[in-house]
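Internal tracking record. Fields below are filled automatically when a chain is submitted to the structure queue. Please do not edit lines marked as system-generated. If the sequence contains nonstandard residues, flag them in the REMARKS field before resubmitting.
Queue: standard
Priority: normal
Entity type: single polypeptide chain
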Amino acid sequence: MMNSSLSMQIGHYSTKGRKSVNQDFRGALIPESELLLSKGAAVVIADGISSSDVSQQASQAAVSGFLEDYYCTPESWSVRKATTTVVQASNSWLFAQNQRNHEYRLNRDKGLVCTLSGVVFKSTMAHCFHVGDSQVSLLRGGVFSSMTQPHRVNVSETESYLARAMGAKPELDIDHHSLAVEVGDVFMLCSDGVHEYLNSQSYVSLFNQYGDDLNLAAQKIVEHVYEQGSADNLTVQLVRIQALPKPQTRELMGRIADLPVPPTLKPRMLFDGYRLVRELHVSSRSQIWLAIDEDTNAEVALKVPSTEGRNSDDYLDRFLLEEWIANRLDNPHVLKPYASKRARNFLYLAFERVNGCTLTQWMADNPEPSLDRVRLIIEQVAKGLQAFHRQEMLHQDLRPDNVMIDESGTAKIIDFGSTFVAGVEEISPSTEPMWALGTASYMAPEYLLGEFGQRNSDLYSLATIAYVMLAGRFPYGTGVGKARSRSQQRKLVYRSVLHPTRSTPSWVDLTLKTALAVDKNKRYQELSEFIYDLRRPNPSFVNQTRPPLLERDPVKFWQGVSAVLLTILLFVLAR
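SYSTEM-GENERATED OUTPUT FOLLOWS
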């Protein structure tokens, strides 16, 4: 199957062999170009167990279900998350069917049980997933190697059983393995009846003879193992990589990626069907204009590339990705794209107009908000972040400037220019350091070490916003942005949010302290945990002793130390 970005050949052969029924099942799907870029091509094989008379039904359901459901998962998901989710769902369905049948429930070896192995080819990577004793192997440069290990427990020389299989247990442990693909690579997926009777030397020899025709090569491999005495079903799938794409995300964006950048914009100018009103914001990243749609009279926020970034492909890729992200998020606390029926003639983004102010301005107007008002805003922003996390995205630049508060008090996350998208990262890995995309004062410390973020990295930023709203300062002062090594970060000291003039409960301070731990492993792992503890006293926090004065009020602590030292000095002078 050919594509402008990826070219591969697939061949296969399957037979019942010496058995009365073929319980193997195999399948492959190479979707159209856009889906091929975002989700990749999938090749899958399943093998039923000999002791069951219905396991061929399990094999067919596992393969067919995967090829149908994998391409329904969000494009933003990584291959690992998508394959794991789909395979786990298929396993749950098979297990449930077995539980409903009395015979299968008492003896799983009689029910809907099978192995499952597959490879998803996405961009320049091969992502292998595996359960059971089928096999995925690779022939590269004349060298044959296996990418999977059989999940089989040997009881004796003649007796063994599957340790992992689809439908056998409610939970499933799946092996994952990824590697960079090279042109000329040949992947083989086969059932155990093949690989147990095929050594690497025989495989290489057969492939060298018949490899020009993959269907014929698959057939000859099956015939060889049959002659070697294999008594099982025999199935082989071969995949040869003919060409690989150049890693890039711009193809995801479609026609808009080829549009020219806008001309110099001015107030009252008619631009692509919009009447420009005024400039709302300008930065090194972009310019944002308030505009009126001439067709609908609706207010719209137009975002155009900055002058500095118009000649940078990396910048334009991230700029285009913002709309792609917005179109995949549907949450009242995330900025929505504006849907226009007109075709665009220039490179810009259109978003809903939020009547209100940034959280930065709101904080300036409300320097000492009540704890309840802080909770209300933080909880709304958390709901927006959860929408990102469900799509396997990290915002990575959460700060008051990137949160809008509208006239009704609704908080909305804006600006997705730093967002990490797992599925897109697999297509074109970022060459820019993670920490360079965000703002140091609100950035999780791990980014400053060059590490990848995770969900509680966004949580750290959210907790920092909550802290600043309550205290009017940062939890570690300005030290976090300067701490670029682990030794420097270990010296950072959290300053209590408690203050004599504000009635913040001590358990809220301990909640923030946990969310703001420099070590990401000591933080809350989920936003829901933080939000819950921010409103309801965590028993473990309530029972803790009051924080020392140094944490509660550093100024008062050092004033006290100075007073003691002065008293000692005066006493010495008097003597």
